[in-house]
Description:
Layout: H1 2-9, H2 16-19, E1 41-42, E2 53-55, H3 67-70, E3 80-82, E4 94-97, E5 112-116, E6 119-123, E7 127-132, E8 138-143, E9 161-167, E10 182-195, E11 209-220, E12 225-238, E13 247-250, E14 262-265, E15 279-280, E16 283-284, E17 289-295, H4 298-309, E18 321-331, E19 336-349
Amino acid sequence: MKRFISAAIAAIISAAVLCSCTGGNGGNSHGSSLPDESSFISILTDKKFKKGFNVRGLGIPIYRDRAEEETFGDMYETGYVFDYGGDATDEPVWDVCQWSSRYAFHDRSITEFISDKPVYTYKNKSKLLSVNTSTGEFTLGLKGSECYVYGDRQVGQEWPHLLISRDIGRSELVKISDKEEIRITLKATLDSYEDHMTVTPHEGIHAAQCMFYLYVANYDKATNNFNDMLWLGMPVFDNRVEYTAEFAKADVDSKESETGKYIYNVASDNYLWEGNNFYKNGEITVGTKASIDFDILPFVKTALEKAQTDGYMQTASYDNLYINGMYIGFELPGTYDIQMTFSDMDIKVL
């Protein structure tokens, strides 16, 4: 199952990032009251990243005719761990994914490790991951300008990713039909953003996004395993629009690493609004912050219904759906540099 999930997240937004461009009106649910915090149970472990990270490989390069310059390690496994110079407390439950980002995190000759306990940082020319193992705050930085070295992205090309992800598995704790709420919490600050496009951006080809996804998988009792899944997404940042619209489409017809799985993204004005996003007066503004506390459960049925209407998840039923993984991070189909710092990330159920 782990390899199935890893293969799928290799291309999750190949449809969503290129099509979810229509903005909403901002802030239609942020005034709702919340249940008592003590009633919720977190489904995440190692939220302070004390166990470190498994490091995934680069996978398919952006420029196939120059593959030898980019490809360093299988996209699923590299055998390399960010163990904080030996300070990690156990085997990692988190992965760091770096697909098509040109400079391999696991290439020690080009990746710098900085230990300033309890803060540990790994960085190279194209990306950065820094974590505070005391607070759970983490920073991701990805430079499209160091990845698109032979020109801006064209139709069909791969694009750079920097994500942290994890599997969650199957237990009654993550069985969706048993839940009254599935609440996503996250605080984020836009540390830096730069546009390095050398051509006029085309919104269907070029973008910079930060996405939060849940893996919603169908459990097949006959085989005692998951047999299908869809992506349930929350756009956190999009450089094309202040608010992204609802989006529902299969991940097909965009690039080689497409997954063929269904994507459903919630409209971001359900949890972002003016003063609580990364824009001021309609412009992306460095230093802005957003805080998300959002019940995504009502959108699971919508996602399943739309998927089945479009011919996907045909053997699935709502009663057999589980949250069996998640990821958060950047995908850059355009030549943009971006860095964000995150804290208080959790998935809590009631």
